[in-house]
Specification:
CATH architecture of one domain: Alpha Horseshoe
Number of strands: 0
CATH topology of one domain: Serine Threonine Protein Phosphatase 5, Tetratricopeptide repeat
Strand content: under 5%
Helix content: over 70%
Length: about 450
């Protein structure tokens, strides 16, 4: 047996007892696992991994020892080695779905959801895990805001394993997100035929019909909701919006007046008010209402924000402010087909950084910062703009305020912060600061490789 040497500082009566048991029965895998759990509880993850490796020399390729080794490596922050161990588990025990899920988490966390999707795609068609693999592809694509990928996976899941309410509902919703409104209404109707559904789903269906300009069908489903909940904000505001879109301004104003009585100073109501004012050629009132509506509309209301920015662009153009109008239309264009405003604007801003259009990038980051204050990825972009403008000290201050507050799941953003910090320190002539920041970035990047 390989000698199990441990430093004196970790020897407790419990550890000593387990070490004795290992010496007496070196082929008993459970004792190694028990000792590893105790050591992890004492925050000695590296030692726990060493114990488990000793166990594997005595009980080669034991599934439980390998899984515990991967967990110890994860707990110690050794994410690359942990992923390698989970890959070994998957290869040796292909029926173990736990290894797939742990690798999925690693790939998603390290910013490579496509690797998780490809891993699940490699599961054979006749494998008992295939249905579960397709369900995980749906989940990963959802989390990654990969709308086309989610639609493809759901279609394959339904084709091979049949219809369920949840699959029909999700496929309808993701067709809607992809602006496939005809397909969205078809699958959402199918979900209702399966005997389930609620007002939220009915609202989705109403909007799918409204986007196809099938206003009578849209209103039919809105009326179902209002019969159940007469003061439903979601039903009333959407009815107001597509009534205006249909061209019935007078009725739109009437519905808006009802909303104002129930929900005063509402952001989406302000967008509707701005549209009415624009159509009535009251441009100052339209601008005021639209700016207020945009400020108050949540980032995930992509369609509403696109409409708001586009209407504001039209309003500003009519007032002779072409520069501001072009900016609003640029934001509106970026929202087309995007999952939400954050994804749309951050992509646009970072593209402008790549193109060295720093002033425009700065304006987009400013808009993002209003919506998402203290977001590390946004602050990093703003800092790059400040460095370009000749203010590296300001950039360093901005980045140091956010770097330690970045959640673990956004660890790639933390690496980027350190890279930009290094750039700022170089511009300042602080070579030690630059080296330290580069070192921190490399530590993070190596843990993800």
């Amino acid at each position: 047996m390989t000698a199990l040497r441990l430093p004196e500082k970790v020897i407790t009566p419990k550890i000593e007892k387990l070490r004795t048991e290992i010496t007496e029965a070196p082929h008993r895998a459970s004792t190694y696992k028990q000792m590893a759990r105790v050591l992890i509880g004492m925050e000695h993850e590296r030692l726990a991994a060493r114990v488990l490796r000793v166990g594997l020399t005595e009980v080669p390729d034991d599934q439980g020892l390998l899984e515990n080794l991967a967990r110890a490596q994860q707990a110690g922050g050794f994410l690359g080695p942990a992923a390698s161990t989970w890959r070994r588990v998957k290869k040796l025990f292909p029926e173990s779905f736990l290894a797939y899920e742990k690798l999925e988490r690693h790939y998603v966390r390290s910013g490579s959801p496509r690797k998780a999707v490809n891993m699940y795609h490699r599961v054979e068609e006749d494998d008992p895990l295939q249905e579960k693999s397709l369900e995980r592809i749906v989940f990963v694509c959802k989390e990654a805001m990969d709308v086309p990928g989610t639609v493809r996976a759901l279609k394959k899941l339904i084709k091979k394993y049949g219809l369920t309410y949840r699959r029909c509902r999700d496929l309808g919703r993701f067709h809607f997100k992809a602006d496939h409104y005809s397909e969205a209404s078809r699958w959402l109707e199918k979900a209702f035929t399966m005997g389930e559904g609620d007002n939220d789903l009915r609202l989705n269906l109403a909007l799918a019909y409204a986007r196809q300009k099938r206003y009578r069908l849209a209103e039919k489903h809105i009326n179902y909701i209002l019969a159940d909940r007469p003061n439903s904000y979601a039903a009333l505001i959407n009815l107001c919006e597509f009534t205006i879109e249909e061209g019935d301004i007078e009725r739109g104003e009437s519905i808006l007046a009802r909303i104002d009585k129930l929900y005063s100073n509402n952001s989406r109501a302000n967008l509707a008010r701005g549209e009415i004012c624009f159509l009535k050629d009251d441009l100052p009132s339209a601008e005021k209402a639209l700016r207020s509506g945009i400020r108050g509309t949540a980032y995930f209301y992509r369609w509403e924000l696109e409409r708001g920015y586009r209407l504001l662009g039209d309003t500003l153009e009519c007032q002779g402010n072409s520069e501001e109008s072009d900016f609003c239309r640029l934001l509106a264009d970026s929202l087309q087909g995007a999952p939400d405003a954050y994804q749309a604007f951050i992509k646009l801003a970072e593209e402008k950084l790549e193109e060295q259009d720093m002033m425009l990038a700065g304006r987009i980051f400013e808009e993002l910062s209003r919506m998402f204050p203290n977001n590390a990825r946004i602050v990093t972009g703003e800092a790059e703009v400040e460095i370009f403008k000749g203010y590296p000290l300001k950039a360093i201050d901005m980045l140091n305020r956010v770097v330690d507050k970045i959640p673990e799941k956004f660890i790639q953003d933390k690496s980027r912060v350190y890279r930009v910090l290094a750039h700022a320190y170089k511009n300042l002539g602080d070579w030690e600061g630059a080296r330290n920041s580069t070192y921190q970035a490399e530590l993070i990047e190596s843990s993800l490789s």
